[in-house]
């Protein structure tokens, strides 16, 4: 799979963008494989990330273990940190700390201009090539949300979202939510981020499915996952992180941030001593969890080992020359080891058949009998264990077939569908976004 990370030392990197359920850099998918970093004890001037030598060593070790992103949870990072991240091919999720000011929504007396504060923070890092996204805040507490009412909190976050976009229009913006306030309706966000700590694989997978429904057409990011090694032990921490990471990608998320890089953690004016969530200890000695994460991210969204069932992709078209070429381009980019494409030309009077032949696909031309007949025609000649249907005005995600096959392998379902994601702007225009996911298994 082609990497979407620019070479180390690159002076310019295209900015990430959200396209359907995933993040992309140019036309390459960007899987977030990240770790949270801090909070750390600030220096005498209150600056948290000033030890450049330590940051350099940490980021080098992250990159050496396959990580490509760092989340700074509670503060905007200095540009010096972003420069170090860029040198090591890491992208940074920057925190804007909206949760620290939410109490002023109760009593405005003496309240600062929070939007102006946010604009100033964003201005300090706007446009930096290592910036992944801005996070408006992290887990505004559920009791506070209930006290204020969800609509008041939603308006507050939308105001800050617009402040960010004023200063950095091309940046991605999210808010880090958690299960207790999942009901917050934030449709303006570019991607949906959740901190989720569940220690059962079944519960975790089920909750990710729920979150995908809440995320809708937007990417879903696991902004924190992990386990405390102090209470559960190093082997258990490694085991849980392994299946958390694999399940995250298998569920169609755009990536994850493991909590945390190190046991060194500073909150509420003191070093936190009674937990060990780090992939490394306080001396930056790797735990088994670091190796578990490294192994889990070697192949995303799924390991390529083993035998994958053959799939027959059937495209039925009637006078589809306007959009068929874009569909075929998407089919050529499918990343799957064993599939065929069958185009059923249902009595077209335009160049549908000629276009399909250009791409080397099998073409079956019939009199015009309608979509149902065309689909059955394709089914009769299909050689795959799984038959996947898509339309001539849709462009599939590169991993469409991989997700379909994986779902058939882990479930007893006989038919599986997925989201139809419309393009921005003119919906009649061909689009490179992932679109229909429809398939049925033909094996006994």
How would you describe this structure in keywords?
444 residues, TIM Barrel, alpha/beta, Spore Coat Polysaccharide Biosynthesis Protein SpsA, Chain A, single chain, six-stranded mixed sheet, eight-stranded parallel barrel, 13 helices, disordered N terminus, globular
Number of strands: 19
CATH top-level class of the largest domain: Alpha Beta
What is the C-alpha radius of gyration, as a whole number of Å? 24 Å
> Roughly what fraction of the amino acids lie in strands?
15-25%
Characterization of this structure:
- It is a single chain.
- The chain has 444 residues and is α/β, with parallel strands linked by helices.
- It folds into two domains: 280 residues, Glycosidases (TIM Barrel, Alpha-Beta Barrel), CATH 3.20.20.80; 131 residues, Spore Coat Polysaccharide Biosynthesis Protein SpsA, Chain A.
- Helices cover 33% and strands 20% of the residues.
- The chain contains 13 helices and 19 strands.
- The strands form four sheets. An eight-stranded parallel barrel has the order 4-5-6-7-8-9-10-11, surrounded by four helices. A six-stranded mixed sheet has the order 16-15-14-17-19-18, with helices on both faces.
- The radius of gyration is 24 Å and the shape is globular.
